[in-house]
Design a protein that fits this description.
The protein is α/β, with parallel strands linked by helices. The chain has 2 domains: about 150 residues, FAD/NAD(P)-binding domain; about 200 residues, FAD/NAD(P)-binding domain, CATH 3.50.50.100. The protein is about 35% helix and about 25% strand. The protein has 10 helices and 26 strands.
């Protein structure tokens, strides 16, 4: 009897940690494990806003898969997933096809524009290492263009960020730190630069404690960030946005959209039922109707039974989902009971750039400023340790003092 074949799609937080856990639970005789990813590296999605702002080097945010996943235990396939055929238990890749006994889908997110005209065509997005690096280079190019132009346009130095959720706020925080450096480099008056954050909701960082939100907003405004809250972007154009019911036009050469994400479109194209762009998975993280397909991370909605609402898809949840997913695949192979996913909220900390941060840990203890920033680094380094041990922390970590 041939051993079962486990195929994992995507080397994000969920895919990498599920692979690590499967390696720990299953021997090479128990199962064949295949990890498919379109790049030969894994990247820290939660660091992409820093890459986009230019406050860390892109290489700092990525890890070669073969450095942390033993290629003698796991077959690493560098290819692009084109379609999943769950009824045939097959996956179509750009350069071939894979069959499977168990499938783990962690293909990440795509930009959700909610039908805003021009947003898909004209706005940049913090989605990958390459796209984030492009934003970094684009921002610096605007300063260079302004510096070298005889009659520079003001919109060259206007940076619009759509969305005041986690990514949007962390990105404007990094921009607030990077802009003074670029002003000095290109001899530009800081007062000529605008960072405008636009949000349809009446507050930034929905779901955070009111005191923390006030602290975050004050910290960012003190460093020059403008907020337009309760204001919808009606249209995105090549040279700016139209906002609000009065159709105000804000000219800008740089527009970054962080206002929403949805599951990789491959899921919908492969016949999985979507709710608001994602799959509502069962409590054991399997896709409804399929006993052999697990869907994790940004591709999935996992319901909180107490609130009746899905958990927000964070890196913390993806890592915990990986533990349950690996345990359940192990259980299916060995004929034991499956686990239900229960989220253990260890807190959430948002970086606001430089030494600025805020958030909660454990039972709601609030942290502000440097202590919050240090905790953010501890959280980042903990993941690196889980992924690659002390060596990876020493190589990529944020343990160094300020």
């Amino acid at each position: 009897m041939s051993k079962p074949k486990i195929v994992l799609l995507g080397a994000g937080y969920a895919g990498m940690m599920t692979t690590k856990r499967l390696m720990q639970k299953l021997s090479i005789e128990d199962a064949e494990i295949v990890l498919v990813n379109k790049h030969n590296y894994h990247y820290q999605t939660t660091w992409l806003h820093e890459v986009a702002a230019g406050t860390i080097d892109p290489n700092r945010a990525r890890v070669m898969i073969s450095d942390v996943i033993n290629p003698n235990r796991v077959t690493i396939v560098e290819d692009t997933v084109e379609k999943i055929m769950p009824d045939q238990k097959k996956v179509a890749l750009k350069n071939g096809e894979l069959d499977y006994d168990y499938l783990v889908v962690g293909l990440g997110f795509e930009k959700a524009t909610f039908g805003i005209p021009g947003m898909a065509e004209h706005a940049l997005s913090i989605q990958s290492i390459d796209k984030s690096r492009y934003i970094r280079d684009h921002i610096e190019y605007q300063f260079s263009s302004y510096h070298n132009a005889e009659n520079p346009k003001e919109e060259l130095l206007t940076f619009i960020v759509g969305g005041s959720g986690f990514t949007g706020i962390e990105f404007v925080g990094e921009l607030a730190e990077k802009i003074p450096e670029l002003c000095k480099k290109y001899d530009v008056d800081r007062n000529k630069v605008r960072i405008v954050n636009i949000e349809a909701a009446p507050t930034i960082l929905p779901g955070f404690d009111e005191d923390l939100v006030k602290y975050a907003r004050r910290s960012l405004e003190d460093r020059g960030v403008e907020f337009k809250l309760g204001t919808m972007i009606k249209e995105c154009k090549a040279d700016g946005v139209i906002v609000g019911d009065d159709k105000e036009e804000i000219k800008a050469a740089t527009i970054v959209w962080t206002g929403g994400v949805q599951a990789n479109s491959i899921l919908g194209e492969s016949g999985f039922e979507l709710t608001k762009g994602k799959v509502n998975v069962d409590s054991d993280l399997r896709a409804p109707g399929y006993e052999d397909v697990f869907i994790l991370g940004d591709c999935a909605w996992v319901m909180n039974k107490e609130s009746g609402r899905p958990y927000p898809p964070t890196a913390q949840i993806a890592i915990q989902e990986a533990d349950v997913c690996a345990a359940n695949i192990d259980a299916l192979i060995k004929g034991t009971s499956l686990k239900e996913f229960t989220f253990d909220n260890k807190g959430t900390v948002a970086s606001l750039g430089g030494r600025h941060a805020m958030g909660t840990i454990f039972e709601g203890k609030k942290l502000y400023g440097l202590s919050a920033k240090m905790m953010k680094h501890v959280i980042d380094d903990r993941y690196l340790f889980m992924l690659g041990g002390a060596g990876l922390v020493l190589k990529k970590g944020k343990f160094k003092p300020f």
